Amino acid sequence: MRRQILFGILIIFVLISFNSLLSKQSYNEINYFIKSLSYKDDLRDVSILNINSSYYVIANLVNDKNFIVSKISYDGKTVSAYKISYNEGLIINSAIKDTKNNIVYLGNTNTGKLVIINNVWNKLLYFENGLIAKSILAIPEGYLILAKLNTNDSLILFFINNEGDIIWSKVIKTDYKIEPIKIINSYDNSFVLISNLENKGILITRITNEGNIVWSKLLIAPQIKANSLINARDKGYIIIGNSDNEGFIIKISNEGELISAYKIYPRIKLSDIITSVNNGYIISGLYNDYFNNYALIILLDNEFNIVKSFFLNLVNSVFNKVISSEFSYVFLGNKKDSKTNLLIMKIDKGFSVFLSYIKQVNLETSKEVMTTLSLELSVKTANLATLNIDVTKESLNLNEITIQSTNIDPAVTTITVRISPVTTVTNTITPIYNFTVTQTVSKTTVITYVLNETVIKQERTAVFEPLTTTTTEIIQDLPLSLTLLLVLFIISLGIILAFFRPFKY
Fold it and tell me: How many domains does the chain have?
């Protein structure tokens, strides 16, 4: 009798395992995951990009003052990781995928030089007051770059073509301390950028493809700091930002007029926003329960009503970025343990997995009254092109170097030039020379520099260094894998065969 009972139990177990093999296969193949990526240094997330069926995660090394790039497969496995280092340090502020699926990095050295890196060329841009990189936008003709001057009261915009040459550069001056945030494509072949004006509010500026201002509006909201900007589903723009413990979502018309503004509370911070696949918007951020921070996700409809809001039940976590991927959303942020690691979550677009790890949170919204006013800004051409001094040649006559440039400033008499090798080799030493301007030609731009004999200093070129990172599976909320179920099936069958004997009646 006992053998019959055992036989029956094992048969049921085998059937359950076999049923899992059949019914869960398609569900398991989608490969949702929540993972942590760690390194010996603290990591601060910059960007996550979806390129050719893989995810590229870019993060700064907090103490090392350089950055890493990690390639992650669709199922969350680390394919490769490497550090990009420079002897002056290199902190990345923005990383994007361009129109040719190349990754382009924008950042600063510790000495204030603005750096642009892509797969073809690297550029170091100098300006007499120093540049702080903020945002880069890829367009078919090249790249638009948003930065600020070290004087803190001026923006600088410049457009470079696909070869890395500066086409135009503009300085936009304000009467206030300014912090540029983001630039995006707009409508009618124009662009929109947002900045925070200290103790004033949010500056929204629309520019032409030549850098001229179409309009500039100040959203009077001194308590709010803008964090992100996207195009609305209809013509217009969506801005998200934060005060001390509240989030704000603001809609602006195509002409810069305020349409609506909503406050979302309590105890949250909003970091990033994208349009959802169906309708509405997806927002990432953090939620505080009075004691700890948790990574937050909010789903809004087109009228900014909250459809869903929930947090990931991981202490000291935050989601700073969100992207849309096939059949899923991917979130990037940080989780702080003994050190700060990266946190990556891939979840289905219906948010139907990880149900035991995401917790509903009740958030409220209220309509806010705000006003905008037009702001006149002064714009002048920047003499930035004369300082675009990255020179790479197969052979070089060290007595004379010719550099093509634009918008030559006749006052410039001495420039420091880095002569880069054709092929970057680990630990290659690149000499830095001092050059004296002997000829200037306005606009078309050929300048000849004569080399002084003295080597000013030596600097190492950027080095691409493979490294080891650790990817830790934090949560696996999917059915058992096919391999594990097959093993269980074989073990069960073996137990049945071991215990089975002809029954005697």
Answer: 2
